[in-house]
Specification:
- By secondary structure, this protein is mostly helical.
- α2 (about 20-25) crosses α6 (about 80-90).
- The chain is built from nine helices and no strands.
């Protein structure tokens, strides 16, 4: 998997300056020491264990696992799924981006809508851009 190779090669100095999305991506590393360092940083930021566990599944899983994990995160009422969905909305897989955008758009959450605004600027697919626009109306 290309992502895990990239995660294995990334410099881990300055973890505290990385976004949650970048930290989640690093969880795909095949080097457990690297994963532990990233988890420690996520926990230091107050990210709940349940979110970290779901993020590990998403980082290491195929598209089916990612889709199921997104649904699990949304159903998990006690956790805020916005960071995970925003991360998945940047996937290279259009199907994953589509579902993440749909889930974010269905949320009545200020942070979700802020993430959608940010994603709109970067989304290469015109149909998905329209979907984001409709969610923000």
């Amino acid at each position: 998997m290309a992502v895990s190779h990239r995660a294995d090669q990334m410099d881990l100095s300055g973890l505290e300056s990385l976004s949650l999305e970048n930290l989640f991506t690093l969880l795909s590393s095949t080097q457990e020491r690297r994963v532990r360092m990233v988890c420690d940083e996520l926990f230091r930021r107050g990210v709940p264990t349940e979110i970290v566990e779901i993020a590990i599944d998403m980082a290491r899983g195929d598209s089916q696992i990612q889709l199921e994990a997104m649904e699990q995160a949304v159903r998990g009422g006690a956790i805020n799924p916005v960071p995970l969905l925003a991360w998945m909305a940047q996937s290279q897989d259009r199907k994953i981006r589509h579902r993440a955008i749909a889930l974010l758009g269905a949320m009545q959450d200020r942070d979700a809508h802020l993430k959608l605004r940010s994603l709109f600027q970067r989304e290469p697919d015109k149909q998905l851009q329209q979907m984001i626009q409709q969610a923000l109306v």
